[in-house]
Amino acid sequence: MSNNPTTSATKRAIKVYISGPMTGHPDLNFPAFHQAEQAISALGLHPINPARINPDSAMGWTACMRADIKALCDCDAIALLPGWEYSKGAHLELHIAHRLDLYVVYTDRMDTFKVLGLDPVVLEGGVA
Asked: How many domains does the chain have?
């Protein structure tokens, strides 16, 4: 599969999965996830926020990761929050993103989307 986002005819917004640390952070770091979601939306992209996928703090880590990974697999890019490198979940998500040939960006450098030449709307089926 190719990392070229222009291989079919049906338009849709680029889906960007937000990844970062939750465990051990106040409010599971949800404020940082919601802030990244707003920033990604402001770029005209479609954010996928695990804080919205798993809003119940009583869910176990494994149950959350199963739901999150399902959502990640439908994305075109992954955006890493600061501190991602200290999160075993974010490491797993990044590993999967690499294997699926997703674009990787960092939320503290959102201009990376422009550097990669990503238009907010791509043609369906471009990324694995």
From this structure: 1
